[in-house]
Design brief:
The chain is α/β, with parallel strands linked by helices. It has helices spanning about 5-15, 20-35, 75-80, 125-140, 160-170, 195-210, 225-240, 270-290, 305-310, 320-325, 330-340, and strands at about 50-55, 55-60, 65, 85-90, 105-110, 115, 145-150, 175-180, 215-220, 245, 265-270, 295, 315-320. Helix 5 (about 160-170) packs parallel to helix 6 (about 195-210). It binds flavin mononucleotide (FMN).
Length: about 350
């Protein structure tokens, strides 16, 4: 085992002994420190076999880091330097808000899962955009960067919030994701209903045309939609001309869990989500007949699981909870595994 691998494993064991939110904060700090010292692994893993063009963007590899990992764009360059083929920052809402009281992040170690009820803690779009401007001014980014569009808890018109954030980040990110599926913001998931979704996407697409023409606009959906609701989502997305679908966000289901924290409120992610999120992805692929690029997310922690998402119809894959158990190197390791076939 190399020194770097041994150090990474020791660091991971240390992080897992900390309270989960504190562990995440320290992981971001460590990532940035390593990057500042010039010790990052050296950029996104890539090869002719791994590289792909989706929309108008070039991805060094198809394995990205999902929304929620770097909500406030604190470690964009350092994260991309550690191997993934893209990163989705956010969710970001217009105004700063603290989110729910702690504790609000739980490891379900026996189940290899995570429950979170952050409730959209965000530094707000001005602070995050200024940070990203500084990152971009320092050096070009080596892979596409997406932004998860969020809404303030107390805002009556959630779509107006998406539009405001999209406008502020125009030119700063490569693609946008409308998040209508977080279970931790009251009434947000109501936007997944047929009429509400059509209206939300129409307004978001109009804003994209006006403020960030050419930037792909995706929608991220919940795994808890039934067959009829999924079919409505697919139809609305195709009719509105949305550029892609991210499937899926966290689940409210608690089926088959063994861990002590299984009954905490919030969204469940990680291994317990893999089967359902892959099923939803496959169903969307069938419904959209390859007309829309799909991003497969939910429970990916191995090369085989990434392959299963691609086989179910994903053009790109994302992960977050897998990093909690496998370390940030996991995204690059999975990409290397895909390259080997
Ligand atoms: C702590 C945490 C925070 C998250 N925050 C967001 C968010 O702000 N916006 C969003 O769309 N998804 C968010 N997610 C969902 C992830 O992006 C992803 O869809 C979900 O966790 C399933 O993937 P995984 O099993 O690989 O974690 C969050 C997930 C976790 C665990």
């Amino acid at each position: 085992m190399s020194f770097a691998v041994a150090a990474e494993r020791a660091g991971l064991a240390l992080l897992r002994s900390l309270e989960p939110e504190e562990a995440h904060r320290r992981a971001i700090q460590a990532l940035n420190l390593r990057h500042a010292m010039g010790l990052s692994p050296g950029g996104p893993v890539t090869s002719p076999r791994l590289a792909r063009r989706v929309w108008n963007l070039d991805f060094p590899n198809p394995v990205g880091v999902a929304a929620g990992f770097d909500k406030n764009a604190e470690a964009v360059a350092a994260t991309l330097a550690s191997g993934p083929g893209f990163l989705e920052i956010g969710g970001v809402a217009p105004r700063p808000q603290p989110g729910n009281p702690r504790p609000r992040l739980f490891r379900l170690t026996e189940d290899r899962g995570v429950i979170n009820r952050f409730g959209f803690n965000t530094e707000g779009m001005e602070v995050v955009a200024a940070r990203l401007e500084a990152t971009r001014a320092a050096a070009p980014l080596p892979a596409p960067l997406g932004l998860n569009l969020g809404a303030n808890k107390d805002s009556e018109d959630k779509v107006a919030d998406y539009v405001a954030v999209l406008g502020r980040f125009a030119g700063l990110v490569d693609f946008f994701v409308v998040n209508v599926s977080s279970p931790n913001t009251e009434r947000l998931r109501d936007l997944q209903g047929r009429e509400a979704l059509a209206a939300a996407l129409a307004r978001s697409l109009e804003a994209r045309e006006a403020k960030a023409p050419g930037a792909p606009l995706l929608v991220k959906i919940a795994p808890d939609l039934d067959a009829g609701e999924l079919s409505d989502v697919a139809e609305v997305c195709l009719a509105q001309g949305i550029d892609g679908i991210v499937a899926t966000n966290t689940t409210l289901s608690r089926e088959g869990l063994r861990s002590a924290h299984a009954h905490e409120a919030g969204g469940l992610s990680g291994q317990p989500l893999f089967a359902r999120s892959t099923e939803v992805l496959g169903e969307l692929s069938r419904l959209t007949q390859g007309a829309l690029p799909l991003v497969g997310v939910g429970g990916v922690a191995s090369v085989e699981q990434a392959q299963a998402k691609l086989a179910a119809g994903a053009s790109l894959v994302q992960l977050y909870s897998g990093l909690v158990y496998g370390g940030l190197a996991l995204a690059g390791e999975i990409a290397r595994g895909l390259d080997r076939g």
